[in-house]
Write a structure and sequence with these properties.
79 residues; Helix Hairpins; elongated
Length: 79
């Protein structure tokens, strides 16, 4: 598989889901789309796993212990 960016894979995966849900594809085209979708989903999962490992490495403390902090989104300043 070509090394696509995560966002590109996700966009294509959403397109495939839309095609499959529409019910307009013939069986052979549905199978091809499904195969492509499975490959894209696996690629996305691999990308997310790698991103999680990178984040964990960044969050490790000096002693090698993983520092756990809750993730919160700060609201934008409303002006």
């Amino acid at each position: 598989m070509i090394d696509l960016k995560f966002e590109d894979c996700l966009t294509r995966l959403e397109q495939i889901v839309g095609q499959l849900e529409s019910g307009t594809l013939v069986l052979e085209d549905s199978l091809k789309a499904f195969e492509e979708g499975v490959a894209l989903a696996r690629h996305c999962a691999k990308y997310l796993d790698e991103a999680e490992r990178r984040v964990e490495l960044l969050l490790k403390e000096e002693g090698g212990l993983l520092k756990s902090e809750p993730f919160t989104i700060e609201p934008d300043d409303e002006r």
